[in-house]
UniProtKB/TrEMBL annotation:
This is polynucleotide adenylyltransferase. Keywords: Nucleotidyltransferase, Transferase. The keyword Nucleotidyltransferase applies. Pfam families: NTP_transf_7. Belongs to the TENT family. It catalyses: RNA(n) + ATP = RNA(n)-3'-adenine ribonucleotide + diphosphate. It is an enzyme of class 2 (transferase). PANTHER family: POLYNUCLEOTIDE ADENYLYLTRANSFERASE (PTHR12974:SF36), PRION-LIKE- Q/N-RICH -DOMAIN-BEARING PROTEIN PROTEIN 44 (PTHR12974). Its EC number is 2.7.7.19. GO terms for molecular function: poly(A) RNA polymerase activity. The lineage of its organism: Eukaryota, Metazoa, Ecdysozoa, Nematoda, Chromadorea.
Length: 387
């Protein structure tokens, strides 16, 4: 319970693009504010659940850092509802997210003048809506330049809610939202979308990798698999490891069939899960100590060794990804596989030669400058912006 309380009281940052200010607030205040605005637009969430790396951190007895922090808001949409009703509900959810962002902005900037389109361009990193027979949900990824992903998921139904057993935990937060001070006396429900919560706990404590039906995971879980391996996890079923890798590679290349989408996905994963460094200042993943972290602490000076560790982890990740694709890809022609391997090798080389530019804090903003990735296709005369 102390870990869960520390996560809910941890300060999270939503960085604005350009000269827009950084929003800094406690996670529990973000949840409360969003629930209030959802009620104002007549959309009720059945409950609120903590998911992702933060949920695994709370469930585990080990001490480790985490980058991804997901909040799930289950919502109700009647099966008989037509497309217009469904659209109205998701539009209302979108409005509640933007109202929450506007309310949490600093009071001294005249925030009432900013419309929703402006807030979307400034504070939202990714916005997705999926509506099929098996999936009906939307996602808002709040912009954070330090690799500290904050994702809000509004789910009516979702066929696949986890990648591996160690990230399948969902923690019900409702008992704590009104009276966090008395959390030690309350009971909290932890469930695992993997199916067997005890086995998932065993995998988490023993640092084992296991999943079911990897071909159903978007991207096959390939990048997360390699990330877990370099963090010291190992396969729960070593005899099935090569078969698992083949499934993951096949699904990855189905979802990302061309080099541009592959490189875009890879670079976004590196930025989102390994943090960002700038010439002596590092912005790493959330602290595993459970202590409160403010904006000053998030821009503390890093030692040279910590920079080397971060860079080495990225390089090890890329080299492991290279090996897995090289040895386990059966769905591509040889030249297609070689093109993907060359792309990974090029990204690794750029990482090893990367020069860090100090952030410009002269304007008073603690947000590092955004960068744009350009891609030069073969036999092309112009560069194409990717991200």
């Amino acid at each position: 319970m102390k870990r869960l309380r520390a996560v809910l009281e941890e300060r999270v940052e939503i960085h604005g693009r350009g000269n827009f200010p950084t929003i800094s607030t406690k996670l529990i205040n973000l949840i409360r504010c969003l629930r209030q605005h959802m009620g104002s637009v007549q959309v009720e969430a059945r409950d609120v659940r903590l998911n992702g790396g933060a949920a695994s951190f709370v469930a585990s007895s080990d001490d480790f850092s985490y980058a991804d922090l997901d909040l799930i808001f289950p919502i109700q949409i009647d099966e008989e509802s037509d497309e217009n009703v469904e659209k109205q509900i998701f539009d209302a959810i979108r409005d509640s997210v933007f109202m929450t962002i506007r309310e949490l902005m600093p009071d001294n900037i005249g925030k009432e003048k900013f419309d929703f389109e402006t807030l979307k361009d400034v504070y939202i990193r990714k916005m997705i809506k999926v509506s099929t027979d098996n999936d009906k949900w939307s996602l808002f990824s709040l912009n954070n330049e330090y690799g500290r992903c904050i994702e809000l998921k509004f789910v009516n139904k979702m066929r696949r809610q986890f990648e591996f057993s160690v990230d399948s935990f969902q923690i019900h937060l409702d008992p704590l939202l009104n009276e966090l001070d008395e959390c030690e006396q309350k009971k909290i429900t932890i469930e695992s979308m993997y199916g067997d919560v005890q086995q998932a706990m065993t995998h988490l404590h023993e640092r084992l990798i296991d999943t079911v039906k990897p071909e159903e995971i978007r991207g096959g879980g390939l990048l997360k698999y390699c990330h877990l391996i370099i963090r010291g996890y190992k396969a729960a079923k070593p005899w099935n490891c090569r078969k698992l890798e083949r499934y993951m590679c096949s699904r990855f290349f189905i979802d990302f069939p061309d080099l541009i989408s592959q490189e875009n996905k890879l670079r976004n994963y590196l930025d989102s899960h390994f943090g960002t460094s700038f010439n002596g200042a590092t912005y790493d993943q959330w602290s595993s100590s459970g202590s409160d972290t403010d904006s000053e602490a998030s821009t503390s000076q890093a030692t040279t060794s910590s920079l080397l560790v971060t860079g080495q982890a990225k390089y090890d990740f890329l080299m492991l990804l290279y090996r897995v694709i090289d040895e386990s890809t059966v769905c591509l022609m040889a030249h297609e596989r070689n093109m993907s391997l060359n792309m990974i090798d090029r990204v690794a080389f750029q990482l090893s030669m990367q020069c860090y530019t100090p952030p410009n804090f002269s304007s008073g903003s603690s947000t590092p400058p955004r960068t744009t990735l350009f891609y030069l296709p073969p036999d092309a005369a112009t560069w194409i912006p990717v991200i």
